Amino acid sequence: MKLKLSALFVALVVTAVPAQADWLNAVKDGAGSMLKETKDSAKTAALNTSVRTALGLTEGTSTQAAIAEKLGEPASKTEKDGKTLWLYDVTALSASYPTLTELVKTQDAAQKSVQLSFNADVLAKLELINNAK
Fold first, then answer.
1. pLDDT, tens digit (0-9, with 9 covering 90-100), for 45-77
2. CA-atom Rg of the chain in angstroms
3. CB neighbourhood size of 123 (10 A)
């Protein structure tokens, strides 16, 4: 009986080890993916904050009239989900705001636009986005 229990225990342990290895690999892959997403999200948030600062805009305060006076007319204006969206080409803005070029140098500025989203007349969100291809 003792031999049978030992054999059963060994069989359970041997069959459980590959399952544990798979489980550990799944956990490791999931954690790695979450860390990459967090890092990318933090990098994007920091870049958006830097662009906002370089342009001298404040979410919740800057108005459409003040922004148009400061940056000129946007390359495009659209309405989406009840919000007004303005797009500015980063390359065009860089002529007046050289620090903007430095900020997006590693981000391939030629492929980026600054998107401003407004609630009513006030800037709700600024984000650097990829141009549509």
1. 877 888 888 899 999 999 999 999 999 999 999
2. 26
3. 21
Closest listed residue to residue 129, CA positions, set 73, 65, 75: 75
Q: How far is CA 15 from the centre of its chain?
A: 42
Average pLDDT over residues 108-114: 72
Helix extents (H) in 56-89: 64-71
Q: Phi, psi (5° rounding) for residue 59?
A: -65, 135
Q: Which amino acid is at 89?
A: D
pLDDT of residue 84 exceeding 90: yes
- For residue 5, give the nearest of 13, 19, 15, 20 by alpha carbon: 13
Beta partners for residue 118, in sequence order = 84, 123
Residue 74 phi, psi (nearest 5): -70, 160
11 vs 35: CA distance, rounded Å: 37
Report the pLDDT averaged over residues 80-104.
Answer: 85
**CA-CA-CA-CA torsion sign (118, 121, 122, 128):** positive
